[in-house]
Design goal:
Elements (H helix, E strand, L loop, with lengths): L8 E2 L2 E2 L1 H7 L1 H19 L4 H24 L19 E2 L8 E2 H17 L1
Antiparallel strand pairs: 1-2, 3-4
Helix pairs in contact: 3-4
């Protein structure tokens, strides 16, 4: 008899509590999308307005990600290879903020160009 790592799994099949726990994100996404559909049908929201709001949300998320990535000491992405093997070179233009690292500036610029092109 093997012991499963998941307490909600019995003999290869999942129990209802385990399935509900895993489907929480799916349920939340369905509720949000249903709210958008309801807004379009009932409140006569424009699909263009929803698309613009979605693009603004993506731009804000990218801006926040790039801001945090500049100050990160460790690798943001394992695909950069050798640049993360060397010691980081910090620059600290303002004493009130953490140091910014040169390799992060290169990473953020590459990702910002790709994001701006896609946007």
């Amino acid at each position: 008899m093997s012991i499963s790592a998941d307490p909600y799994q019995i003999g290869g099949s999942k129990t209802i509590p385990g399935m509900l726990r895993e489907s929480h994100d799916l349920v939340f996404a369905c509720i949000l999308n249903s709210a958008l559909i309801l807004g379009v049908v009932v409140f006569e929201w424009s699909l263009v307005e929803i698309a613009v709001i979605y693009l603004i949300e993506i731009a804000i998320i990218n801006l926040l990600f790039f801001s945090v990535a500049l100050f990160t000491l460790q690798s943001v992405d394992d695909l950069d290879g050798d640049s993360w093997d060397e010691e980081p070179t910090p620059i600290q233009p303002i004493a009130l903020i953490p140091p910014v690292y040169w390799r992060n500036i290169n990473y953020v610029l590459r990702k910002a160009i790709i994001s701006a092109w896609l946007w």
